[in-house]
Write a structure and sequence with these properties.
With about 325 residues, the protein is an alpha+beta fold. It folds into two domains: about 100 residues, no CATH class; about 160 residues, no CATH class. Helix content is about 40%, strand content about 20%. The strands form four sheets. A four-stranded antiparallel sheet has the order 9-12-11-10. Bound molecules: zinc ion (2 copies). The site of one zinc ion (ZN) has 6 residues, from loops.
Length: about 325
């Protein structure tokens, strides 16, 4: 090799250096890209899991409340701590759901922290959760709060109160008390209990749309409210979670519904003056009190009526 040859070889080598450097950095770049793709696959999985769990939580929460309520109504069960019962059953459901994600290099858990009636709206139950998601290189914790409506759910309170006094049934729309309610009232030495023989009340909770409530002073409105079986806001009536525990009143913002005495003929109605107040928290209360009869509809000589005391009269616009 002559002198020129060495120079060429040296130059070639020098020329090769940037090529080597570029190659190395390209290798690094592709490796980095692979890591990024890996991470984004993981985070896609994580966000899919998180989304799926968040979507399913309110559905599972409502299902759990419904199952418990139906077990009280149809299977004669009782519970003493509704939030604990719901929490335990719901946690099992959620564990089943999160378990489906725990085999894909991911660890998912969701804990039911608390359950309470919304202080702003007794038709809503607030569920609080903590969601945890872990992968090799990602850790995510999130506090969640979901409001679940109780509209469309059955009311267990009448069954829990009246069952010891006789048979009480429902057809998924209304509750038929038979003689159970009148016997229950009689056992408390309440006058005129017999007006509630064969009484009925709504089975399903539906929020009354007639607001302000004073508008019930119109017979037409009261008739529509009663025939639809609407529930009302009430500071005295119990919330749904306490109804599951057979409580007719509680410290939470609650609900009220009217129990409907069986309609009577015109001539029979003319002798009815007062009877146990038809509001459910009064009827099922420790100290039931009387109300005045209020006829809100007359159809074919049949009178539809309620008993309302002065306080409820004022609330619902009845003078
Ligand atoms: Zn109403
Ligand atoms: Zn309550």
């Amino acid at each position: 090799m002559d002198q020129k040859g060495y120079v060429m070889a040296g130059t070639s080598f020098l020329l090769l250096i940037p090529v080597i450097l570029i190659s190395v950095s390209l290798i690094n770049f592709f490796q980095g890209e692979n890591e990024m793709i890996d991470q984004s696959i993981h985070s896609e999985k994580v966000s899919f899991a998180a989304g799926d769990i968040k979507r399913n939580i309110p559905i599972l929460a409502r299902e759990t409340m419904l199952n418990i309520s139906l077990s009280l109504i149809d299977d004669n069960k009782t519970i003493t701590n509704s939030t604990e019962s719901i929490k335990t059953q719901l946690q099992l459901q959620i564990n089943d759901l999160t378990a489906t994600y725990n085999n894909q290099n991911m660890n998912v858990s969701c804990n039911v922290d608390s359950i309470e009636t919304s202080p702003h709206d007794p038709f809503l139950i607030e569920f609080d959760f903590t969601l945890n998601l872990k992968t090799e290189n990602l850790k995510h914790e999130e506090k969640l709060s979901r409001l679940v409506s109780i509209e469309g759910m059955p009311d267990p309170l009448p069954f829990l109160k009246c069952r010891p006094y006789g048979s009480i049934n429902h057809d998924n729309v209304r509750i038929s008390y038979g003689t159970s309610l009148s016997s229950y009232l009689e056992s408390k030495n309440i006058d005129n209990s017999s007006y509630y023989e064969n009484a009925s009340s709504p089975f399903i909770i539906k929020k009354c749309p007639y607001e302000p409530y004073q508008s019930h002073g119109s017979n037409e409105t009261m008739k529509n409210c009663q025939s639809n079986g609407f529930y009302h806001y009430s500071n005295d009536g119990s919330c749904y979670l306490c109804r599951l525990e057979s409580k007719e009143t509680c410290e939470h913002f609650g609900l009220e519904v009217f129990l409907q005495p069986v309609p009577v003929s015109n001539s029979n109605y003319s002798i009815i003056i007062n009877g146990p107040c038809s509001s459910d928290h009064v009827i099922f209360g420790i100290e039931s009190y009387m109300g005045h009869s209020l006829a809100y509809d007359i159809k074919n000589e049949t009178v539809y009526f309620l008993f309302l005391d002065e306080g409820h009269g004022v609330k619902y616009g009845i003078n």
